[in-house]
């Protein structure tokens, strides 16, 4: 059966019913997402927050998590800072776009009297009794938007639709990744039909500054290619400082290599100098071959053609590149 909104609604009919009852029951709701947010994490979170505020104006709808260095406030509102006492009273916790509990940006989701979740990351962790988990889906935003669109009698405002659309476009590589399917396009169509400014949305998402050209120039002058077509570049903390970027922006140029003949996979390797979690963060992409297994071996995971990993020392990098290289022998 092809993936469609109606098919997904049928698959999760009982789950959707329980989720809706939970949303209707609680007067206080908080939406959580993963650390170091991307388009999908923030798009699915803010799309849901806006949808809930539009349809339940008398409920207290809050959201938490760390801000993004460029997405906020350009694309999304600044994240709220909720005091500890807010979590002392009963509330519904909704978690989006994250599978591993340790990667949820605010651990206070555990204080939720009820927890529900929407995700597309394959994970062995079960943090919610009721959840939608579709690893074949291109984005969490697609799943949350599908749930909202299937809710009869509820409206999808242009603002909520725009947030969801940003999440979908960002995590599907503008609908080019293999996880894009009929369901993706059906949801996108329904969102566009709300009338949000589509052209302006793309301009806002991919706006660059002149200084960003210097980052691109650095990447193009310092990348390496393995014997079997794995391209990669390394951004140490001192180079990031010189280029005036943060570690979370290190992967922004990774898709420069996506359509180059002879390059089968491509990676960004960015030093994260955070003293609480110092490491080298790696974003891995490929054209066709599943690279998620290699990502799992190196402290990460993800999807067949888009995964993440991490290493503690650059001495580990040759082993990671060699593992990827073996996939294309």
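Sequence proposed for the structure above (329 residues):
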């Amino acid at each position: 059966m092809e993936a469609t909104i109606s098919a997904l609604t049928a698959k999760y009919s009982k789950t959707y019913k329980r989720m809706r009852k939970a949303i209707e029951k609680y007067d206080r709701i908080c939406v959580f997402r993963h650390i170091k947010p991307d388009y999908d994490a923030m798009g699915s979170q803010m799309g849901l927050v806006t949808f809930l505020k539009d349809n339940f104006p008398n409920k207290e709808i809050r959201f938490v998590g760390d801000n993004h260095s460029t997405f906020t406030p350009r694309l999304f509102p600044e994240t709220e800072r909720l005091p500890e006492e807010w979590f002392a009273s009963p509330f519904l916790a909704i978690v989006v776009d994250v599978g591993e509990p340790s990667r949820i940006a605010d651990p206070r989701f555990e204080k939720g009297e009820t927890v529900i979740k929407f995700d597309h990351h394959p994970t062995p962790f079960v943090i919610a009794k009721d959840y939608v988990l579709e690893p074949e889906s291109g984005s969490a935003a697609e799943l949350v938007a599908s749930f909202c669109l299937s809710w009869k009698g509820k409206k999808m405002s242009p603002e909520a639709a725009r947030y969801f659309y940003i999440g979908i476009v960002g995590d599907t590589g503008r609908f080019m990744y293999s996880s894009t399917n009929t369901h993706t396009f059906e949801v996108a169509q329904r969102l566009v039909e709300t009338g949000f400014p589509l052209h302006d949305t793309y301009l806002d998402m991919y706006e660059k500054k002149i200084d960003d050209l210097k980052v691109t120039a650095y990447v193009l002058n310092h990348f390496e290619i393995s014997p079997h077509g794995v391209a990669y570049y390394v951004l140490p903390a001192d180079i990031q400082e010189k280029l005036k970027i943060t570690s979370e922006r290190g992967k922004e140029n990774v898709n420069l290599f996506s359509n180059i003949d002879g390059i089968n996979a491509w990676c960004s390797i960015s030093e994260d100098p955070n003293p609480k979690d110092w490491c080298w963060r790696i974003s891995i992409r490929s054209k066709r071959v599943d690279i998620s297994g290699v990502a799992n071996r190196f402290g990460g995971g993800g999807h067949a053609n888009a995964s993440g990993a991490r290493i503690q020392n650059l001495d580990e990098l040759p082993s990671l590149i060699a593992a990827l290289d073996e996939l294309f022998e």
